[in-house]
Amino acid sequence: MQIQGATALVTGANRGLGQMMARLLLQRGAHRVYGGARDPRSVREPGVIPVRLDITDPAQVAAAAETCSDATLLVNNAGVLTDSPLLAAPDLDAARADPPPLCRWSPDDRGAETAERHARHPGMRRC
Ligand SMILES: NC(=O)c1ccc[n+]([C@@H]2O[C@H](COP(=O)([O-])OP(=O)(O)OC[C@H]3O[C@@H](n4cnc5c(N)ncnc54)[C@H](OP(=O)(O)O)[C@@H]3O)[C@@H](O)[C@H]2O)c1
Question: Which of 58, 77, 125, 126 has the most CB atoms within 10 Å of its CB?
């Protein structure tokens, strides 16, 4: 993955793993890091550019894709862990037999749409 000089969009960058990944991207030489968040005022990581982005809102996804059209790297982090068969199953085999993925995501999983919009951008490469 090319971080040095990259322009990245991290969804859910206001807290948790997303905030940490945004910070690390800057520390590792990313040129620019956009931090997507439902409330852009909550993106407080120094150097991260706040972008309003609720990944379940198609209009906001489209607007963010436009705002961050120079992004070469997408960290599709935003999400809610609603259930984990890994924890609920009696053993690991039972967890693996449960429909994948092991972690279930928010019901309509608009993160996939965010990823797809950005993946179509010519500057974006699969890593
Ligand atoms: N931590 C783990 O052990 C673990 C394990 C497996 C998977 N994950 C996944 O990794 C990601 C980050 O985990 P985390 O522990 O940092 O979670 P977290 O602390 O709960 O943070 C979730 C982030 O996602 C954002 N978010 C939720 N729904 C959103 C939406 N509709 N639009 C935009 N942003 C939204 C939240 O924003 P708000 O502040 O607005 O709520 C927050 O920034 C999540 O997708 C989580 O499901 C985490």
Answer: 77
| Residue with CA at minimum distance from ligand 1 atom 27 | 79
Ligand 1 contacts (CB < 6 A) are 11-12, 14-18, 37-38, 53-56, 77-81, 103
Q: State which amino acid sits at residue 122.
A: P
Q: Which residue has the higher pLDDT, 111 or 86?
A: 86
Q: Which CATH architecture is the domain 7-79+108-119 placed in?
A: 3-Layer(aba) Sandwich (3.40)
Ligand 1, atom 24: closest residue by C-alpha:
78
* 104 exposure class (CB count in 10 Å sphere: 0-12, 13-18, 19+): middle
Domain spans in the chain, listed from the N-terminal domain onward: 7-79+108-119
96-127 residue pLDDT tens: 776 554 334 444 555 555 565 555 555 555 55
Q: Which tens digit of pLDDT belongs to each residue from 18-66?
A: 999 999 999 999 999 999 999 999 999 999 999 999 999 999 999 999 9
